[in-house]
From TrEMBL:
Name recorded for this polypeptide: Small ribosomal subunit protein bS16c
One GO term of the biological process aspect: mitochondrial translation
Lineage: Eukaryota, Viridiplantae, Streptophyta, Embryophyta, Tracheophyta
Pfam families: Ribosomal_S16
Organism per entry: Ligustrum lucidum
Keywords: Chloroplast, Plastid, Ribonucleoprotein, Ribosomal protein
Main location as per UniProt: plastid
């Protein structure tokens, strides 16, 4: 099973995160399938590769809670097909 989750980067006390599609059994810093976004909580910046995110969501990937909140703020779930609105 694939999940969309955060992968920590940056230095001590200055964390930034990549949003990645990764196998559930992998650890947080493990090898990801694809990088699909970026999140900086200190500057409150996000960059999302929306076509890649929609591709993984349509294939059945589950976002973690934090990633789901980020995607809701960016209104990514509105772009899913109507039969795939289980994340609203």
């Amino acid at each position: 099973m694939v999940k969309l989750r955060l992968k920590r980067y940056g230095r001590k006390q200055r964390a930034v995160y990549r949003i990645v599609a990764i196998d559930v059994r992998s650890r947080r810093e493990g090898k990801d399938l694809r990088k699909v976004g970026f999140y900086d909580p200190l500057k409150n910046q996000t960059y999302l590769n929306v076509p890649a995110i929609l591709y993984f969501l349509e294939k059945g990937a589950q976002p973690t809670g934090t990633v789901q909140d980020i995607l809701k703020k960016a209104e990514v779930f509105k772009e899913l097909r109507p039969n795939q609105t289980k994340f609203n």
